[in-house]
């Protein structure tokens, strides 16, 4: 369904398109009676015919309908327009934490305020059985008043729902994904805490705790690499705070914090009573070029992020066969590499070419690519 500014949808008039999210396109709209500016999210045209995506979108509406917290972007209503589901949410004036960090270095006390509010949102959501599964800076919105709004519950799960994930499909953002998610296990509330730990580590040190030159290297690092303690990377970080962050990054879920509230208490206990800006240098600015539109805060809404590749065709891809061939050269982690690539594209040539990049030997790489024709 093509939507243009000025078009009327139910009781709303479209003002402008704000962006594309994981499941839908988000528009700024104006209610024709109250004249309130809101955000409307509609399923992407290419996904509206995919039963899984339609059901996931419907569940996002239902999940948000159960949540009412000052640090979670709120749902106003949902309705069908020409057989297309639309949800209307609060319009947030501000920028994502990712955009803010790309624009300026964030001082330690400010970073902790954002993480504290994020954990408060998770304390509430987890108590209702909701696991977000995709905590990352681009899903943390900062309003003009400095209030956090946690966005995009499009892949969240609840205690009452069954997972919609297909075999061969990883959900979440790899740099912030917990080891259990990388290995194909079920995400729990402690998985969200791992992602918060990654985000906090990145904010206070200026770099990710886990990184790699390829998806394969990042996945292996999440599973096996112990990142350097935060205070060793950024000496101004207090040792107790560094230890609190590192506990959230433990590989084994049961050894992390038992709850978001426990993580929050650990942060509070790690800091002196006087938490003013003085005495806390800013972490180094990231080596990111901010987008042209990020010169200042702008309207946004829940779920604004890059559109993922379409999942159509995944069922028919020979993922197990590709994984088996790749495993000859890089071992058991091959299945995770193939899952991630299949989540990005259903093009077989793309999957083979990108998978081949994980093989260090030129001869072995060529041999693997020849297998595609067998």
Task: Please describe what this structure looks like.
This protein is an alpha+beta fold. The chain has 3 domains: 9-92, Phosphorylase Kinase, domain 1 (2-Layer Sandwich); 93-300, Transferase(Phosphotransferase), domain 1; 314-371, no CATH class. Helix content is 37%, strand content 16%. It has 13 helices and 12 strands. The protein has helices at residues 51-65, 97-103, 108-127, 179-182, 189-205, 215-224, 230-233, 239-248, 260-270, 319-330, 334-344, 348-356, 362-371, and strands spanning 8-9, 12-20, 24-31, 37-43, 75-81, 84-90, 92-96, 130-131, 140-143, 148-150, 157-158, 298-300. The strands form 3 sheets. A 6-stranded antiparallel beta sheet has the order 1-2-3-4-6-5, with helices on one face. Strand 2 (12-20) and strand 3 (24-31) form a beta hairpin. Helix 5 packs antiparallel against helix 8, helix 8 runs antiparallel to helix 9 and helix 11 (334-344) packs across helix 12 (348-356). The radius of gyration is 21 Å and the shape is globular. Mean pLDDT is 82; it is low at 164-170, 287-298 and 302-314.
């Amino acid at each position: 369904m093509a939507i243009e500014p000025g078009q009327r949808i139910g009781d709303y008039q479209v003002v402008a398109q704000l962006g594309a999210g994981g499941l839908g396109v988000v528009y700024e709209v104006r209610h024709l009676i109250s004249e309130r500016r809101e955000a409307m999210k509609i399923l992407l045209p290419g996904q509206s015919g995919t039963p899984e995506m339609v059901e996931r979108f419907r569940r996002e509406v239902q999940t948000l309908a159960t949540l009412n917290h000052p640090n979670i972007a709120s749902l106003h209503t949902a309705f069908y327009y020409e057989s297309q589901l639309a949800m209307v949410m609060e319009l947030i004036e501000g920028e994502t934490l990712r955009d803010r960090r790309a624009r300026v270095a964030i001082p330690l006390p400010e970073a902790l305020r954002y993480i504290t509010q994020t954990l408060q949102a998770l304390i509430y959501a987890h108590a209702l059985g909701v696991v977000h599964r995709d905590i990352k800076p681009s899903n943390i919105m900062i309003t003009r008043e400095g209030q956090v709004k946690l966005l995009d519950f499009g892949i969240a799960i609840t205690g009452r729902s069954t997972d919609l994930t297909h075999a061969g499909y990883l959900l979440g953002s790899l740099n912030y994904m917990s080891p259990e998610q990388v290995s194909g296990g079920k995400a729990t509330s402690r998985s969200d805490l791992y992602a918060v730990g990654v985000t906090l580590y990145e904010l206070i040190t200026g770099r990710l705790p886990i990184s790699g030159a390829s998806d394969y290297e990042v996945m292996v690092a999440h599973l096996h690499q112990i990142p350097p303690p935060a205070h060793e990377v950024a000496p101004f970080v207090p040792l107790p705070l560094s230890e609190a962050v590192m506990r959230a990054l433990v590989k084994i879920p049961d050894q992390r914090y038992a709850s978001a509230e426990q993580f929050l208490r650990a942060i509070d206990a790690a800091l002196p009573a006087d938490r003013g800006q003085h005495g806390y240098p800013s972490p180094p600015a990231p080596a990111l070029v901010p987008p042209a539109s990020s010169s200042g805060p702008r309207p946004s809404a829940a779920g604004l992020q890059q559109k993922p590749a379409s999942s159509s065709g995944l069922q028919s891809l020979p993922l197990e066969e590709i994984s088996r061939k790749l495993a000859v050269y890089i071992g058991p982690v091959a299945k995770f590499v193939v899952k991630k690539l299949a989540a990005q594209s259903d093009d077989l040539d793309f999957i083979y070419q990108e998978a081949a990049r994980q093989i260090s030997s030129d001869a072995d790489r060529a041999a693997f690519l020849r297998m595609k024709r067998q």
